[in-house]
## 1
Amino acid sequence: MTRIIGLDPGMSKTGWAIIDMDERSNIEFLGSGTISTGNKLGMGERLHVIFEQLKKVISLYSPSEAAIEKIFVNKNPKSSLTLGYARGIVILVLEITELTMNEYDTNYIKKSITGNGHADKDQVIFMVKQIIKNLNIKCHHAADALAVAICHVYTKSSYFVR
């Protein structure tokens, strides 16, 4: 059994999801959530919240592998820079906790989940709910993190060819 944490980094909200994959690449959903940082906190405080909360999630679930969405360049350079800070903290936590990190492009994740590399968020959430039955996930950040984890399973098990 392989336990995987999927991550969708963001400064305001960092989504996470935990799944188990057995030797036949069957997926079992274990949990998901969002690490939220308040807009009133300073940059350093917000990064510290992400750092501490993600360490707690990893400690609680003990994943053996991590899958993370690669950064994309926003039209707004400030947003891209802020996203980079959050992603850097997530990568630091993965390094400190000695988790193997696997990175995937947004379009690759969407294509592996929906068959369309330019699918919108609603399509991704719909397909994630088809893959994981009886899933009650409301936040798109957690759904995106789950999509990253599922993409990792598909890539590892060669279900999806790049």
## 2
Amino acid sequence: MIARRSLSLLGAAGIAPLLVAVLPAAPAGAHGYVASPLSRQAQCAKGLLPCGDIQYEPQSVEAPKGSDKCSGGNSRFPELDDDSKPWKVQSVGSTVTFTWTFTALHRTLNWEYFIGGARVAVFDGGNNPPPQDGVSHTVDLSKYSGRQKLLAVWNIGDTANAFYSCVDLQIGSGGGTPTTTKPPVTTTTKPPTTTPPATTSTAPTTTHSHQPPPSTTHSHQPPATTTAQPSAGAWTVGEHYAVGDVVTYSGKRYRCLQAHTVYDPGWTPMAAPALWQAL
């Protein structure tokens, strides 16, 4: 009887590790951040300035809802709260389109945007997961000017957490990505070559005095101009595009409406009308 009980205990002890071994791993959480205009963590990910761990996982700034910090209070990413770092300040106009990219999806309560602690915009998530190819929100910032730090918050619908992104902006009438205007081409028109009359011993005739002078219309014609289409390279993942840039995609031409860097292959000109205009 004792022998049987010992065997039963040994058998149970041998099975327990097997049961632990086949337990599934914990599911991955949702992740996301503002990719355009470049948020602070997006700048770290691109290596624009020295950063800590955030450069490897810009999508992971997760913390409980209600924080007013760029890090959300997450102790892993304190550099995001350091306003003295050389963050790239992006010039924009009175309205700005913010584009989120996601590496995992989660049911969404809403997205909120703050400047100086005041909420300037909110977008309902309907308690649905966001689309895999990202979300864009156009926010009215006409009440603000000069340099501002905007806090964007993605509030999750079925957990107590949120994801945080800060974007450094220069808001004003001169906003928007500057475009380079080429100087006009100066065309130099040479005067017509004049051949002096030949000197002869024959008395000059006067019949030619009634003839109209030689035609000089060519000297008054403006130089011919050709309106060239702006050059357009192929749309490329990883490329930074400025407002006014023209690209080709699937045989069509598109003009950039909002300066951004392509982090996600899903942000095609056809799929992101907030970023591109078909020509």
## 3
Amino acid sequence: MGNQSFNFRLTGLGMLAALLSQSAIAGFIDDSSVTLMTRNFYLDRDYKGETPYSAAREWAQGFLVKANSGFTEGTVGFGLDVTGLLGIKLDSSPDRTGTQLLSYNPKTREAKDDYSELGLALKGKISKTKLSVGTQFPALPVINASPARLLPQSFRGAYMISDDIERLTIHAGRMDRVNLRDSTDYQPIALASPNGRFKPGASSERFDFYGGDYQWTDSLTVRLFHAELQDIYTQDFFGALKTWPLGPGKLKSDLRVFNSRDDGQSKAGKVDNLNIGEMLSYLWGGHSFGIGYMQQFGDTAFPYIAGGEPVVLSDGTMSADFVNPKERTWVARYDYNFAAAGVPGLTGMIRYLHGDNIDLPTLGGSSLTESSKDFELAYVIQSGPAKNLAFRVREAFYRNEQGAASTFRSDNETRINIDYTIKVW
């Protein structure tokens, strides 16, 4: 796999060099950009009750460099995107690894002192349609490169985005490998199976997706996507984002519907899930008050790619995903932007999730419950020499009835981020 990746990079560079020798490079250089993001990340999961180990606790420093070229001149423009990632251990121990901040030896559980990777993507452009081949960071309902740790998850493949039709953005792609958040190499794309929901170890070398976002009106956007993890599952997504003026503020609706079933050889076993979630939020000044409901229909849990999180109503929770078989989840959330009170850059969030009717007989029953209380406070410096320096503190208090064999166990969790983004060019 290492030689294949190296050969791919050399081929991409060789193609780019040939193209540049035949094209004007003004746009390639003039429209290029280079940014550096540094991320200091502390993650502490203090497990409660019966548990195989008492904590997952690590501290690390990350660096992410993104160098994106413009496009060469001509009917067809070409360019190159380069991503460099480096993670450095600051504190870890074999008895508390597993935070996914750091790469570690699965036998000794010793975290590596550092790990790094280089991603390359050759890209082309015709009108408002772009095609990229190489390292990808998709952010879609059916495939999402998780940014929730020290370094982001990435995929390898081809990805097209087109804005040629007014109000419509089309996405299509094929991925054959994934690079996990705490890994340095590409591997087949696997199905997440926490709590033993599906057959463990099921993976595929082909993930296809297509769909788009259509801005029906200025206040309504409709989303439709189809995805297939070959021989494991297929998934259709429908979403709608709508706002209405209401009193001094506005009402926002976020509807998400996923219909999933097993595909081909069904390597992970049966997949039969309909996930329906709706969030209603009222925005007024710096305030946002939201309440939502999500339910799992069908015989199995919601399927999604291993190494990340499902883009469902519970998106952003820290200790669990709330998509077990038959589960019903209520969400209440309050956000406040302190810019309304004269403190720009400061934001806060409080959220409560409660799930019931969980059907996990091997983990304790068919009417189990879980809940999470989440708190967040973030501040981004707005001006001066430290502009864009960001501080973020998150706390979660998660409890369930699933026992020690559960992937998600009751815990108190703390995450602290200090991020700084610099535009080098």
